[in-house]
């Protein structure tokens, strides 16, 4: 499902680049050029997402016992870096056009073509974000947000070029391109920041951590306490580990049964979880963890 969505994203990105490139060739607008350049980044990003999803789908092996899910974050980082490079290129072109403005041509047709491309991006961008969140795929979510950011910039470009047509003030064209570049730069920075945090094993959100503790507290019957909870995300998988304190006289078989119950509950209530539990005797209790009910 995720790979199919990424392939469709690549096909759509190629179509959108062709439309926006055509709009630029029709008008000579640097703002429309900036819009087409950002969409060209979408093509590269979609290709990177396909590669990342293919790698991430590979099962764990001897060299990668935790799987390959983090490959998706590399795709998201690459996309963010490409967005930043595109924004700097747009700024350079806009400054050049501001210093040497030139009249624009066929603005009406160019705006229509760009609007069609923008509508395609908006529709599929929303689909990718929803699908990526449902499948917990960072690559799809990043690709979807990039398309939606492209929509925002496209709308700004259309408004700017439309004002050029209405007012005849050609300086509005490069000014619109500079505004687009600044917004794109911000989007790229946020995308890189979020992906790097995940590569550095950022913990699950606070509400997810609390949900884990509540489930353990409710279903750890026979145990005394759970402490030292740790979580991290890797693509669609959430790794969970913690220490479970049981009575010292409890048999290994009984302690193992409690762990099996907790693993089943956590993996059922939180699909995509990988749970590791370290059992300790009651002398190791910290009295600062989660008491079992």
Q: Can you describe this structure?
A:
GO terms for molecular function: cadmium ion transmembrane transporter activity; ferrous iron transmembrane transporter activity; zinc efflux antiporter activity. Keywords: Cell membrane, Membrane, Transmembrane, Transmembrane helix, Transport. The protein is elongated, with a radius of gyration of 25 Å. The model has no long low-confidence stretch (mean pLDDT 80). It has a 4-stranded mixed β-sheet, covered by helices on one side. It has 2 domains: 2-199, Alpha-lytic protease prodomain-like (Up-down Bundle); 206-291, Alpha-Beta Plaits (2-Layer Sandwich). α2 runs antiparallel to α3 (71-99) and α3 (71-99) packs parallel to α5. The protein has helices at 2-27, 30-56, 71-99, 107-135, 138-167, 172-199, 206-219, 252-269; strands spanning 225-234, 237-246, 273-281, 290-291. β1 (225-234) and β2 form a beta hairpin. The relative contact order is 0.13. The chain is an alpha+beta fold and 293 residues long. It starts with a helix and ends with a strand. The protein has 8 helices and 4 strands.
Lateral strand order in the biggest sheet: 3-2-1-4
Fraction of helical residues:
55-70%
Q: List low-pLDDT spans.
A: none
Give the C-level CATH assignment of the largest domain.
Mainly Alpha
Return the CATH architecture of the largest domain. Answer: Up-down Bundle
Sum up the overall morphology in one term.
elongated
Write out the CATH superfamily name of the largest domain: Cation efflux protein transmembrane domain
Largest sheet: 4 strands, mixed
Structural class: alpha+beta
Using only CA atoms, what is the Rg?
25 Å
The overall number of domains is: 2
Strand content: 5-15%
Count of individual helical segments? 8
Task: Write the element-wise H/E pattern from the N-terminal end onward.
Answer: HHHHHHHEEHEE
Distance between the termini: 40 Å
Taking all residues together, what is the mean pLDDT?
80
- The CATH topology label of the largest domain is Alpha-lytic protease prodomain-like
| SS elements, strand count | 4
């Amino acid at each position: 499902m995720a790979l199919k969505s990424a392939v469709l994203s690549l096909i759509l990105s190629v179509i959108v680049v062709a439309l926006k490139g055509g709009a630029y060739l029709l008008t000579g607008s640097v703002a429309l050029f900036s819009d087409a350049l950002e969409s060209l980044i979408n093509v590269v990003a979609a290709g990177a997402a396909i590669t990342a999803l293919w790698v991430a789908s590979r099962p764990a092996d001897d060299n990668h016992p935790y799987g390959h899910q983090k490959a998706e974050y590399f795709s998201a980082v690459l996309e963010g870096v490409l967005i930043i490079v595109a924004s700097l290129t747009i700024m350079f072109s806009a400054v050049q056009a501001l210093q040497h403005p030139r009249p624009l041509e066929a603005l009406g047709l160019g705006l229509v073509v760009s609007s069609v491309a923008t509508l395609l991006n908006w529709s599929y961008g929303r689909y990718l974000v929803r699908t990526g969140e449902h499948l917990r795929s960072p690559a799809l979510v990043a690709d979807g947000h990039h398309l939606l950011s492209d929509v925002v910039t496209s709308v700004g470009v259309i408004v700017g070029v439309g004002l050029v047509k209405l007012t005849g003030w050609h300086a509005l064209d490069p000014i619109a391109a500079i505004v687009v570049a600044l917004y794109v730069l911000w989007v790229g920075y946020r995308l890189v920041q979020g992906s790097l945090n995940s590569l550095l094993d950022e913990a699950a959100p606070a509400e997810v951590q609390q949900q884990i503790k509540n489930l353990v507290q409710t279903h750890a019957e026979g145990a005394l306490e759970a402490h030292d909870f740790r979580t991290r995300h890797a693509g669609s998988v959430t790794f969970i580990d913690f220490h479970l304190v049981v009575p010292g006289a409890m048999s290994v078989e009984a302690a193992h049964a409690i762990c099996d119950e907790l693993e089943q509950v956590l993996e059922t209530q939180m699909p995509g979880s990988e749970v590791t539990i370290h059992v300790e005797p009651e002398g190791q209790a910290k009295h600062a963890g989660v008491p079992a009910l």
